[in-house]
Structures are given as C-alpha cells and as structure tokens.
Write a structure and sequence with these properties.
Elements: H1 2-50, H2 59-64, E1 75-78, E2 83-89, E3 92-104, H3 109-115, H4 117-129, H5 133-136, H6 139-161, E4 166-176
Antiparallel strand pairs: 1-3, 2-3, 3-4
Helix pairs in contact: 4-6
C-alpha cells in the first residue's frame, strides 16, 4: 500500500509539473502577443507622427522655386520588337529574349523615343550581349542589367533632346533558355 501511495504521489507530481509547464507556456504566449501588439501600436504611432505634413513654405520660397506637378501620369512606351541575344555557355547555345517598356512622364519623350528607336535598340542589344549569362540568372543580375539599361537610354535621350526623359526601364518579358 505504501508503494501505491508513492506512485500516486509521483503521478500527481508529474501532472502538477505538466500543468505548471502549460501555464508557463500560456503566460509566455500572452506576453509575446502583448509585445507584438505593443510594437505594432508604437510603429503606427511613429508613422502617424512622421507622416504629418510639413509646414507650408513661405510666400517668398514658393515664388523662388517653380513647382512641377508631381502627379503627372506615367506614360509607357513599349519597344516594338523583342530583343533576342545569343550566348555560348560551356559549349552550349543559350539565349535571352526580352520585351522592354520605357516609362516617362513628359508627353514629348515618346515622340523622341520613336525617332531615336534604332539607336536605343542598338545600344540595348550591345549592352545585353556584353553580359554574362550566369549573372542574368540571378535577381540581382537582372536588376543591375535593368539599371544599366536605364542609364544607356537616359544617356541617349540626354544627348538627343537635352533631358534624360525616361524614368524607368521595365522588363515586360524576360526569358532565358
């Protein structure tokens, strides 16, 4: 009988330990949830505080600086033909086929792009063909190529019309095989 009482006592202790562990887990989960909610609240408060409009400029400042409309709509100019580049990688033929759309905000830029399209396509093809195929397989490599393409197009527009004109180069299709 003494052994049965001792077993019950051990079972009771085991059960008490389980309940204590469960209680601690629940308390930690509630504490974690409170901390998360507190963090979200502080973040929202800071965003609201930082998002307030700055004081309006004085009349002298407003007259000194011409204000360009910041809400001009984007104008998209798709290059008419796909660009196809061949690569030799480890003795095998690989290729890149891409479609490009240029984004600008000035209504005069698409006409200038249309006029200088042969040079734009030529310079982009030369840029793309100078890339390593392996580099273009990574997101970082594609992003660098996109930035380089933007610089090439802006350079051409700057030479031809006196302003960069193009705000973004967008790959609307990018197939590598």
């Amino acid at each position: 009988m003494a052994e049965e009482e001792r077993e019950l006592t051990e079972e009771e202790r085991t059960e008490a330990d389980r309940k204590a562990r469960r209680s601690r887990r629940i308390k930690l989960a509630v504490l974690g949830l409170v901390l998360i909610l507190l963090s979200v609240g502080v973040t929202l408060a800071l965003l609201h505080f930082l998002g307030e409009e700055p004081a309006s400029p004085t009349d002298a400042e407003a007259q000194a600086e011409p204000v360009e409309p910041a809400d001009q709509k984007a104008i998209y100019f798709p290059l008419k033909e796909k660009i196809l580049i061949n690569y030799e990688v480890k003795g095998r033929q690989r290729f890149l086929q891409t479609e490009i759309t240029l984004m600008c905000r000035d209504n005069a830029v698409p006409a200038a792009l249309e006029q200088h399209l042969p040079r734009v396509r030529n310079d982009l093809i030369m840029l793309f063909s100078g890339q390593r195929f392996e580099d273009l397989q990574t997101p970082e490599g594609r992003e660098l190529l996109r930035q380089d393409a933007l610089r090439v197009v802006q350079s051409i527009m700057d030479e031809e019309i006196g302003q960069p004109g193009v705000e973004q180069v967008l790959f609307t299709s990018f197939v590598m095989q």
